[in-house]
Amino acid sequence: MKKKILVSRKYPEAGISLLREQGFDLTLWEKDRPMTPIELADLAKDHQALVCTLTDRIDRDFLEKCPHLDIISQFAVGYDNIDIAVATRLGIPVGYTPGAMTEATADIAFGLMIAVARKMFFMHKTIMAGQWGYFNPTGHLGMELTAKTLGIFGLGRIGFSLAKRCKAAYGMKILYHNRTRNTAAEQALGAVRVEFDKLLVQSDILSVHCALTPETKQIFNETAFRKMKPSAIFINTARGPIHHEGDLIQALGQGHIWGAGLDVTDPEPMKPDNPLLSMENACVLPHVGSATMEARNRMSVLAAMNIIQFYNTGKVPHIVNPEVLKP
Ligand code: DGY
C-alpha cells in the first residue's frame, strides 16, 4: 500500500516532486498559516510520515497521539519545536536539513552586522518620515568594522561561514565559544576558543549561532549584556529565546551595548509596537535567514530524501536521533 505523507506547509516543489515521483500519497496543507496542534494531530493520525517545520509543535502531546508515525522529517536545521526525547522513546526517527542554509544565513548575519553598524534601517525610516534634512557632518554616525573582533557563540557551519566573510572583508580577529574545539576554523582563520565571559568582554561583534537548548535559553540576559563592551553589536540569527528580549531592550536603551541585529525574536512574529523596531541601533528581520531560492530548494530536497531513503533503505541521511534505527 502507498505510504501516506502529511506535508505541513507549502514547501518548495523541488522536494515535493521527488516524493511524488516515488509514488507516495501526499496530503498538502495549502493554507498560508501553520496547522493548529489539533488540526495537526487530527490529520497526522491518518498518515505514516510527516514533513514539518519550526512553526509546528511536535511536542509530547502530539507525539503520544501519533506514536504510529514511521518518520518525522523537519524542514529546518533547528529542531527545538520537536520533543526529541519523546520521539526517541517512541522509536520515531527525526530527520532534518543541516548545511542547506549555511551560506544564506551567514549572509543575513553579515548583512545585519553592517546594517547595525551604519544604522541603516533607522536611516531608511527617517527618509520615509520626511526627515532627510541636510547633509549633517556630525549626525547619523555609525562605526567601521575593519580590524574589529568577531565573537561567535556556537562555531558550527554557519558561524564558520560568517567568520570567513568577516576575516576576508575586514581582517577581523575571530574568537569563539564552543563545547568542543573547531580546529578547522583555528587553522583556516586563526580563530581562538575562549570562555564565555571572555567572549562577552572582548567581542566587538558577538554573533549567535548555537542551537536553542535548556543550556542556551536566555543565556544572553542582563548579566551577559552588562559584561559586553558599550560599543559592541549583538547579532542573533539562530533562535529568539537565546536572548532575553526585555534585557536586550534595556541594554540598548541604557548603553550597555551599542547595537543589535536580529533575524529571530521571542515570540515570533514580533508585535509591530515592539520598542526594538524604533531604536536607532537595532535592525530586525522576520526570520528570513534561510529565505533564498537556493537554500529553500536544498532544504526541501534534503527533507524529501530523508523520507525516501528511510523507506527504500532503512537509513535516514540526516538524522537527529540515529539510535532509533536498526544497525
Ligand atoms: C532553520 O533551518 O532552523 C532556520 O531557522 C529556518 O530555516
Structure description:
The chain is α/β, with parallel strands linked by helices and 327 residues long. It folds into 2 domains: 4-100 and 293-324, Rossmann fold (3-Layer(aba) Sandwich); 102-284, NAD(P)-binding Rossmann-like Domain (Rossmann fold, 3-Layer(aba) Sandwich). It contains 12 helices and 12 strands. The strands form 2 sheets. It has a 7-stranded parallel sheet with strand order 8-7-6-9-10-11-12, sandwiched between helices. A 5-stranded parallel sheet has the order 2-1-3-4-5. α1 packs parallel to α12 (293-313) and α5 crosses α7. It is globular and about 75 Å long. The mean pLDDT is 98. Bound molecules: (2R)-2,3-dihydroxypropanoic acid. (2R)-2,3-dihydroxypropanoic acid binds at residues 54, 76-78, 101, 289-290.
